[in-house]
Amino acid sequence: MEKAITPRTKWIIFNSPSNPTGAAYSHDDIKALTDVLLRHDHVMVMSDDMYEHIVYDGFRFATPAAVEPELYDRTLTVNGASKAYAMTGWRIGYAGGPQSLIKAMAKVMSQSTSNPCSISQWAAAAALNGDHSFLATRNAAFKQRRDMVVEMLNAADGISCSKPEGAFYVYPSCEGVIGKQTPGGAAIETDEDFARELLEAEGVAVVFGAAFGLSPFFRISYAAAMDQLQDACGRIQRFCGSLR
Which residues on neighbouring strands pair with residue 94, listed in sequence order? Predict the structure, then answer.
């Protein structure tokens, strides 16, 4: 990261746990990065903590401003109600950071959307201040789905899938099928080809990795029913097995 920082660098953006991979930075990972940022006081930090409550296997969430208090005045921490509280349609996000920055953000927001609707604000307040015991139950269900999806994808020919620490995505590699052909003769040269042919052959929609800037991978969300995920992963196995 230090090699990538120049005098023109304005922001470093963290997203942990992340979309699209579900990977998360540990406290020590973030400390190594904040140590670099302390040497570059012209760089601001934005930490996207949207998935902070969706972590597994005892992983402990950490965020830059808490790991390195000296960066507190240079850090904008953003979050929302969409993921942890399943309130996607309520459209509530929020941020904490330097007063001057928050005032500027509020000025832009007031002229673009005026404000989030009052009903959504009250609902978000109830979620944030209410009983969070449901999170453990919900995360246990997500973990079960994650483990099943990872196992089934790793059983598919040419697919390799790491087990993520958080969020509700997996980001498997399809490198093992690049260069193959479908039974109909369509060539799989990119992850976009893989996603398109999978959709055509099996009716399974995934997001190809090039859309996120990292190939050859694809993203699957396991925020779905277990039987749907089993069916989808079985179709992926069948599709991969058909390639030659």
Answer: 79
Of the two residues 178 and 115, the one the predictor is more confident about is: 178
The whole-number pLDDT of residue 83 equals 96
Cα separation, 107 vs 116, in Å, equals: 14
Torsion sign (Cα): 85, 91, 92, 93: positive
Q: Domain holding 94: CATH number?
A: 3.40.640.10
The helix-helix angle for 226-242 and 134-154 (nearest 10°) equals: 20
> In terms of residue numbers, what domain contains 173?
134-242
Share of the chain above pLDDT 90, in %: 98
Helix-helix angle 191-202:226-242, to 10 degrees: 110
How far is Cα 231 from Cα 73, in angstroms, rounded to an integer?
A: 48
Coil, strand, or helix at residue 243? coil
Model pLDDT, residue 114: 84
Residues 73, 143, single domain; the answer is: no
